[in-house]
Known about the structure:
The chain is of the alpha/beta class. Helices cover 37% and strands 15% of the residues. The longest helix has 14 residues.
Amino acid sequence: MKINTLLIAKKLSFLFLMFLLIASCETKKEVPSENVSTPAETVEEDPLPSWNEGSSKEAIMAYVKDISDENSSNFIPVTDRIATFDNDGTLWSEQPIYFQFFFALDRIKKMAENHPEWKNKQPYKAVLENDMPTLMKQGKNGLVEIIMTTHAGMTTDEFETLVNDWISTAKHPEKDKLFTELIYQPMLELLDYLRANNFKVFIVSGGGIEFMRPWTERVYSIPKENVVGSSVQTEYTWNDGKPEIKRLAKIDLIDDKEGKPVGINRYIGKKPVFAAGNSDGDLQMLRWADANSYKTFKLYVHHTDAEREWAYDRDSHIGQFNIGLDEAEEKGWTLVNMKEDWKVIYPFQLNEENDQ
Length: 356
């Protein structure tokens, strides 16, 4: 499916938001002529090998070391080491449209087998014909109809199966890689580094909570219960002696912008001490972390690598980074320059480097 990014308007991306990582340590023992062993030399392993040496990497490691030191005035008890990460554009790519919207478009095409009338009915006709300009002309109501048609009216178990099947086979139309291959290797290493230092890591994303939960554990090692996202209302039913949870065509939580602190409070119950995002939609979450009484770390991923990924910020229709960029610079938050700070973007690029 070819997508002309210039034809995808800001309205579509905003509406969609609404709905929804070893260097070996060699030990050398030298035995002198007196037959007495000398202490082994240990080479300290780099926990962030895909990060270039620089201010971003130094800041992350200095922070973790500081708050983990019981003798430091900034020591944070393990129970309060909460880290929250946005997903789209922070843990995996998000261009030219959010990956979950690719799921919705693919679902319409699959469902159309049982809906021949959609060939002549908007907004479905535009989706089936890959006609993005016409799809946009359907406005909010048309886009809402697509989301609700593909994300509601089924049980939670049925929806989980649909997502698992799609995420296991669907490929990005421009990168020709599984969507789960378009995750950021440096961020995988950061997640591991934080967990190794007793942080509890959560995803807090504008994406659908039940769209992410089926695959986040195997991709990021983040369990289902640590995923906070946008959601539809649900209800419990007793279907011929079988208990089920039905997904309704009604919004429950929009976990974007102001909704992120609300979601954090509802599902986590503590302010994060480490928060990471990439867009204006994450600003309120970083501000919420900044309000913590503990020493905090605010990180923004700045998409600056048009060759290996995409370059965009202030004027982007996806992941717009404008107000957040100004505030991060003003307050001295960590701005990760993707082009300069990361040796590789995706895990599969590690293999490509090794083959060269």
